[in-house]
Here is the input.
Amino acid sequence: MPAITQANVERLVTIFGGSGFLGRNIVRVLCKRGYRIRVAVRRPDLAFHLQPLGRVGQIHAVQANLRYPASVQAAARGAHVVINLVGILFERGKQRFAAVQAEGPGIVAEAAAAAGASMIHVSALGADPGSPALYARTKAAGEQAVWAAMPAATIFRPSIVFGPEDDFFNKFAAMARLSPVLPLIGGGHTRFQPVFVGDVAEAITRAADGAVKGGLTYELGGPDVRTFRQLMEFILATIERRRLLVPLPFALAQFQAWFLQFMPKPLVTPDQIRLLGRDNVVSDEARREGRTLKDLGIEPHSIAAIVPSYLWRFRKTGQFRSRAA
Here is the structure.
């Protein structure tokens, strides 16, 4: 881990969407490097949990909303590095894919350019203008908006991000604790390449350090490529539970998702079902061109090395076991 330098102490990093799962981990690593951090979020009062990650006065939360360019410009003013993490998994109210993921990144990039800052944008593996999923199409549109405003920007496309507070392994482990059946959407053949949140945070921090070549898109995946079925089997083995894995055709999954999408926090939406129709792995092109974690000098952590350390609580006697058990 690079030591804190006076140069870093004098540099300000603005992180849009920095209070979420990935954002918290990036803030933690940036704090260790000595950076001053401005966390730009819609609700600054919900970012107080970040304060213990740094020294007194190192982290400051401000209000910003990608739908209001003036607030974005104010949050980027004076920054040396601007990082955009803002994204949504489903639409609610005024939080629409088009506004947040297609138009928002361009607004952030324009603000970064006006501030004279470097720009780091986090997209998603699978971003594709030709995807049947609106999520993936708007992610691709957001990337193009960033390039238009900041050709030297650095874009990262992570696969499923895992870690102690993730919304993938934890969600399915919780389902397995309550349900005797786990559905395998589309038969469970879709391939994924889960990447550890700490590795993604390190890659982004190295870009903030200026150690990553800009003007490129990096695809971030872990060392394991597994199908959805294999991931469910891994979860069940880890939490020591036996559950029936039932293949669910895409058409039936779409029908069920239509009703589930109206939940306050949907288990799945029709758009997410469409997203599951394509593999979510690092491309051969990215590997050939040196745009992966290993090419950034980062040895990715496997799910076997990390996930059991936080899924222990979902075991049958997990509520009675200590972390050391």
About this structure: Confidence is low (pLDDT under 50) at residues 318-325. Residues 6-164+194-222+280-300 form a domain with the Rossmann fold fold (CATH 3.40.50.720). DSSP finds 13 helices and 13 strands in the chain. The first helix runs from residue 6 to 9.
